[in-house]
Every structure is written in structure tokens, then in C-alpha cells.
Amino acid sequence: MWFEIICGLVIYRLCKYFFSDGDDVLDVETSDSSALFAVADRLGKLYDGGKVYVGLRIPDADTASRQHIDLVLVNKGEAVVIAVKNFSGFVSVKPDGSWVSESYTKHKAEQHPDPLAETKSQASILESYLEQRGAALPEGYLSCKVILSNPKVSTIQSSSFPPEIITYDQWVKMKPEPKSLFSGWMKGAFRGGKKEMQESIHQKLNFILSTAPMWDRLELKGNKYVLGEFLEFKGKQEDIQALRHIKRSKISRVVVQKTSMLGFAPSRLQVLYSPRDYRSEGASASEWKEVNVRSSTEVLFQLENPSRVRKFKLSSIVSMSLSA
């Protein structure tokens, strides 16, 4: 009997080692990044014809560094710099503009800098960057919003929040209308009565933002996302050699798919990658290249928040987008 139990444990561990995707998705904190993409996806549906840019890293000439911006929504006649706050628990605003959040269970208060002031600063840096690249925006064209996206958040005295703050209750009530018409609430929340900007400026703005520095992104299984910087692949030498062409300067997107294997041999992964091309938004089917590597291959990734290096099994990744 003990022999059968030991054999069962050995087989279980072998299967788990070779076929499991590991716990990368489970133990890494992806909630904040995933919240950005969830908000971006919903904004894209609310604003038919609009474009949402996620995880921008805009150069700041004053500090010689790059300023992280959660989202920028570009619609005809407007652009909105949006900060997404994934706070949970009770949230209130202090007289100095800073925020306090307190967990429902731990009753421990956390202090947060004024998110609206931070977002306005980001908008100023973005406006300067756009001007340097030849897109001088009409006065008052660029606005700011802060969205509380977590359903487990409760705002205390929400009337004390500035109008640029969109609480979760307001967020879930936003609805699109047919033919890209917007309800009065949505116009008040985002448009602010701005006049229509010229088509040429609109196109130029989209081009600049689509080629602006961004964080690399990993899409993980379970509809989770991670922002950061791709560093390198880790694994067997022959697999690293097969992946040698995947470099930031040449490749913009990587897609990972499983291939079927029989028996207990290590499963293989099909890795598809497309060349970088600024002339179009995506590569044609004929331009995609593919290689097959072991599922034990890993991706070394520098997380945006918290800032640390993390290994992800290639088998836990759905896709990877690389910024220029």
C-alpha cells in the first residue's frame, strides 16, 4: 500500500512540475494593473470611436525622468488624463486634499497624496511633451479625472470630493448611448463643453501617443495584467537561442500557445512574435514568426509597481507587448 502511495505522489509531482503553470498568477499582485485595463476596456465601450492609451511613460524635461500616466482617453475634441485608484475600504478627503483609506476589517488608516493634484501635474508634463512633438493643443483641451474603480470602496462624504473625482457609484452608472451620443452626465464628467478640435490635430495626437514610451505589458492567464519592463528569457540554452530574435528593437508583440504532447515528456510551447512596424497597428498573418520552446522557459520582468524583478513561467503568459 505504501508503495502505491509513494508512486502516486511521485507521479503527481512529475505532472505538476511538467504541466502546471505554476503560481506566478496567484501570488503576484496584479490587481492594480488589471484595474487599469478593466477601466480602459470599459472606456473604449463608453466612448465609441475613442482611443485609450494605458501605462504611458512620458519624459519629464524638468526632472530628467519619465512620468507614469495610468490612462489617456482621446476622443474627438478632447483628451483626458485619468488616474485609476484601486482603493478598497472607506475613503475620505482631508482638508489639505490628501486622501485617507481604511480597511473594512483591519481598521488601519493609510495616507495617500492628493491624486487629483498628481494627475494635474501629469497632464502638464504630457501637454509639454505633446508640444515638443508638434501637437500644440487648444486651450482647455486637456482635462483630468480620477476614477475609483474598486467595487469594495466606500466614499465618506462624497460631496466633499472635487468634481473631477468619479466615485465607483458614478462609474458603474455611466452608460453609452446609440450612435456615439453621450448622456448629460457623461458630458459633465468628461467633456466639460469643449469645442470640437480639428481632425488633423486628432490624428496627430493619436500618432504621438501610439509611439510614446510605454511600459511593457504581460497578459497572464485569468485575465490579469502586469506592467513593467521585459528583461530577458531564462531557460535551456537551445530555447534561449531559439528566442534570440525577440528583442525590443525588432519585436512588438509575443503570443504564447501550448502544443500537444503525449506521455510525460515536457510540454512544448509555441511562441509567435511579430515585427515592429510603425506604419500600421498590427502585423499581417504572413509576418508572424514562430518558435517552439520548453514550457519551463521563463521571462525575467521588472515590475512597475512594486519595483522589483520577477520571473514568470512562459506557460503562465498569454501575450507580451513590448514598447519601443
UniProtKB/TrEMBL annotation:
Pfam families: NERD (PF08378). Residues 31-149 form the NERD domain. It comes from the Eukaryota. This is NERD domain-containing protein.
